[in-house]
């Protein structure tokens, strides 16, 4: 075999699939009771597609041609569009890159991809599944997934909470295992930890190829769970800001989190349909923005809100602390909590210096751009942060960065406050909400919006 070519093989096993490349094996394993309920007529289709989903990025990492030793997977056409609009997010983390260069590399890598297998179709047997009023929730203990859980419990939908355990995220996994144990003791609700061993294929340096569309990968690898639990829904925690975009220096329209946008979620609907199951993929929190999500979670479901952990958990301080205090996400959540008069300590956030000058670089309002994340680097969260600092200031919060806010941005915030409140405490699009839950969910948001306006009136 040509050393410059990557050869990919896959094998169907008793409890999942095995992927082989460069003499290394990577397994995607399921509990036997889950895999056994997944129709055998779909195993081959699943294996081909799952292998592509796990390895699509390897030609970009190694600048090599790739050959798959099985039939062409139909998921490729879905993922091609997803990746085309997702890959440009890297320009916000690697400042010297251009969107045109990224697209060219992706285009050329895919141009040479080959599939060496006979055209294959599943057996043709129709899979009949009577779906139940159940939802799989991609559960991370972040504010979005916690609020989604609270909403589903309130409207009477049974939940299956799944945390995807990435092998390259040891700090996060350890913290969330502890939270899951406490969560079970409090609510008698199990959080399933799915061991995603294929995550070892992701690149760990450079542009982190393979991390680009992990949520779409999650939606795919959980297909056997759709069948076992007969779930009517799969919910992400994608909020309204996931639809924001801007033009880059070359004129390309770029959404730094395109995979979480409404357009992407609509595209993901094709995944369950490939397997003849009508599970709806969407987000209950699509209509609202981050600061309003934080308010509703802690106002309406305070016992659930106590479990919040929204830290990236990538830096060494995260080894022992639930919130590392040295990332853009920690900074953003901290000022939201202060803006809403929610004690950071109630969610285990004890970094009392988050508003000191040394933390300034983590706030997009002052720094302009952050290298901690694509969204932080884009600057799209600036106005929501402007409002959060303004509310914290009106709330009587005092610290070094509050003083800097007063000198640099208070006048702007005063002029724009009505517009900012309307947008960031507003109820906006709801395209990805299933019709069966839309009215109930929006009714809850409307009630909480009334309460939020009372709070805002009180401090303003």
List the topology elements:
Elements: E1 5-13, E2 16-21, E3 24-29, H1 32-37, H2 43-55, H3 58-62, E4 65-68, H4 75-86, H5 99-111, E5 114-115, E6 132-138, H6 143-155, E7 158-165, H7 170-187, E8 191-195, H8 214-221, H9 223-229, E9 231-236, E10 246-247, E11 253-254, H10 262-268, H11 270-274, E12 280-283, H12 290-300, H13 302-305, H14 328-339, H15 364-367, H16 374-378, H17 382-394, H18 400-408, H19 410-424, H20 435-459
Parallel strand pairs: 1-4, 4-5, 6-7, 6-9, 7-8, 9-12
Antiparallel strand pairs: 1-2, 2-3, 10-11
Helix pairs in contact: 6-12, 12-20, 14-17, 17-19
Transmembrane segments: 207-228
Keywords: Membrane, Transmembrane, Transmembrane helix
Protein name: UDP-N-acetyl-alpha-D-muramoyl-L-alanyl-L-glutamate epimerase
Placed side by side, the strands forming the largest sheet appear as 3-2-1-4-5
Sheet of most strands: 5 strands, mixed
Strands, count: 12
Spans with pLDDT under 50 lasting ≥5 residues? Answer: none
What value does the Rg take, in angstroms?
Answer: 22 Å
Question: pLDDT average, as an integer?
Answer: 91
Output the structural class: alpha/beta
Shape designation: globular
- Alpha-carbon distance between the two ends: 70 Å
Tally of DSSP helical segments: 20
Helix content: 40-55%
Question: Beta fraction of the residues?
Answer: 5-15%
